[in-house]
Write a structure and sequence with these properties.
This protein has helices spanning 2-28, 31-48, 58-77, 100-112, 116-127, 132-139, 143-165. It is 72% helix and 0% strand.
Length: 168
């Protein structure tokens, strides 16, 4: 029984670790902190593995734990909770985007300028690679709400990138 559990958990960790780490990196933008957050998340998953009741997907359950791990981490540090609170800082860049790497960086900077509900859905969809249904399960909202938030978030990113490229 213990070996079966270890194999099952090991497979789950192998399949999800890169997605969880990417999601954590979006929250803290620091590789060391992202690794620490991911480790704490998986410790919580391990402690609660038997409590998963099968409602929804295990992946949505994992990312709900990841989200709570982020919230607790920011709360303990007395820092802005980027998962739940809006950022007062707006991303501003005078330079034009000239390379693919700069494009990617500019896009993620623009994502950071979004409101929290839009930023979170963009992170979950593109950094964590969750489906609309998995995001809806995790956030306990209808799929239509996820689609709407993602649409509005991407529209905001396009607007910010356009403003950066036109020097406004």
């Amino acid at each position: 029984m213990a070996q079966r559990f270890q194999e099952e958990f090991g497979r789950f960790w192998e399949q999800t670790r890169d997605r969880v780490r990417a999601y954590m990196f979006c929250a803290c933008s620091n590789a060391t902190d992202a690794d620490d957050l991911a480790q704490e998340c998986y410790l919580r998953v391990l402690r609660n593995w038997a409590r998963f009741d099968g409602r929804g997907s295990r992946l949505a359950w994992l990312f709900a734990i990841a989200r709570n791990t982020q919230v607790d981490w920011f709360r303990k540090r007395g820092r802005e909770n980027r998962v739940l609170e809006a950022s007062d800082e707006r991303v501003a860049s005078e330079a034009r985007v000239t390379s693919e790497a700069d494009d990617v960086e500019a896009i993620w900077q623009a994502v950071e300028g979004l409101g929290p509900e839009y930023r979170e859905v963009v992170h979950l969809r593109f950094a964590a690679d969750l489906s609309y249904l998995e995001i809806a399960e995790m956030l306990d909202v209808p799929v239509g709400t996820v689609r709407s938030r993602l649409h509005r978030g991407l529209k905001g990113v396009r607007k910010q990138i356009g403003e950066q490229n036109h020097g406004t």
